[in-house]
């Protein structure tokens, strides 16, 4: 299965605050917040949701197509992605533009405050999936992840027109879109990914109950942080897959993207949904243990060992098609 991943490609500036954000908030002054946090660490890392997912797929033996817009400063980042199996030939380079920037501060409880500047990403709406398919062949699945809102709408429409199965992963862009647009992005999606907060926000934004959302998508995956992941399908009992225990979390940014990569890589190899979710949780655990969204390293042996320790031999055996395909 060939997977195209559309969405943001960014450089992350990650800062770490040794205290707790909640201790700095004055309850009766929340209408006028002016806060600054003295951080004790700054790291600059490669990131962006689409790039994170694509790199995870590449590490698991797939050759994903990355589709997004970047600035002229993308050269070194492009080399890095190619080294990890990502096809970057459909990435649009905007002359004179800057690759998107994400600035995020994480506190001692792993709460986060972030800001995102799109930069060259604003040109992503000019990218045609039809032209991508002409170059590389039609993808079997398209991930529509956070991006310029016009690009998300365009790529969703192109998937419907070409009858391409797609994944809806609106994430932080839910807050930027109106009700009709959010409904448009979800309807007929083969997969929908959210976290717990986004799940509630999505229902509020669409005006749909969880049941109505499930009537419009194939499978809804909600990440639950340390509690694991919830998998829901219309007409089926909800499934909760527990997270990998005893993980020393260094940095939560990017763990959700790794989970998506793990699940989609397993599905691409014909693995059942429950086992796919377990692989997603294991890959996310490696990401959690690293600072930066793409700095984790995995091998077939390390994945298999953690799968056995967390979920048992049967799950590791079910995921053999993925493990065998890894570089």
How would you explain this protein's 3D organization?
- The chain is of the alpha/beta class.
- It has a single domain, classed as 3-Layer(aba) Sandwich (UDP-N-acetylmuramoyl-L-alanine:D-glutamate ligase), CATH 3.40.1190.20.
- The protein is 37% helix and 20% strand.
- It has 12 helices and 14 strands.
- The protein has helices at 49-59, 75-83, 129-136, 149-161, 179-186, 196-206, 210-216, 255-268, 273-288, 300-311, 313-318, 320-325; strands at 3-6, 10-16, 41-47, 65-67, 69-71, 92-94, 100-106, 112-117, 141-144, 166-168, 191-195, 219-223, 229-233, 239-241.
- The strands form 3 sheets. Strands 4-1-9-10-11-12-13-14 form an 8-stranded mixed beta sheet, with helices on both faces. It has a 4-stranded mixed beta sheet with strand order 3-2-7-8. Strands 5-6 form a two-stranded parallel ribbon.
- A hairpin with a 5-residue loop joins strand 7 (100-106) and strand 8 (112-117).
- The protein is globular.
């Amino acid at each position: 299965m060939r997977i195209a991943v559309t969405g943001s490609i960014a450089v992350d500036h990650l800062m770490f605050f040794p205290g707790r954000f909640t201790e700095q908030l004055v309850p009766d002054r929340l209408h006028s917040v002016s806060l600054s946090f003295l951080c004790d660490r700054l790291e600059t890392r490669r990131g962006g949701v689409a790039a994170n997912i694509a790199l995870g797929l590449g590490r698991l033996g797939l050759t994903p197509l990355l589709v997004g817009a970047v600035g002229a400063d993308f050269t070194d980042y492009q080399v890095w992605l190619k080294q990890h199996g990502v096809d970057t030939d459909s990435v649009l380079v905007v002359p004179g533009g800057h690759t998107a920037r994400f600035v995020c501060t994480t506190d001692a409880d792993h709460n986060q405050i972030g800001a995102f500047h799109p930069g060259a990403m604003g040109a992503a709406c000019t990218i045609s999936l039809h032209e991508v398919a002409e170059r590389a062949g039609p993808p079997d699945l398209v991930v529509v992840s956070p991006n310029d809102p016009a690009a998300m709408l365009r790529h969703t429409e192109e998937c419907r027109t070409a009858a391409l199965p797609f994944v809806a992963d609106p994430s932080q862009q839910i807050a930027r879109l109106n009700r009709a647009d959010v409904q448009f992005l979800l309807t007929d999606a083969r997969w929908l990914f959210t976290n717990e907060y986004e799940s509630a926000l999505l229902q509020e934004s669409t005006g749909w109950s969880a049941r109505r959302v499930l009537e419009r998508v194939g499978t809804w995956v909600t990440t639950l942080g340390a509690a694991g992941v919830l998998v829901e399908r219309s007409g089926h009992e909800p499934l909760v897959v527990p997270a990998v225990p005893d993980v020393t979390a260094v940095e939560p940014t990017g763990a959700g993207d790794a989970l998506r990569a793990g699940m989609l890589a397993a599905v691409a190899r014909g693995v059942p949904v429950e086992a796919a979710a377990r692989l997603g949780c294991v890959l996310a655990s490696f990401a959690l243990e690293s600072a930066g969204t793409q700095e984790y390293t995995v091998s077939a042996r390390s994945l298999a060992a953690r799968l056995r320790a967390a979920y048992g031999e049967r799950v590791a055996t079910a995921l053999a098609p993925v493990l065998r395909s890894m570089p």
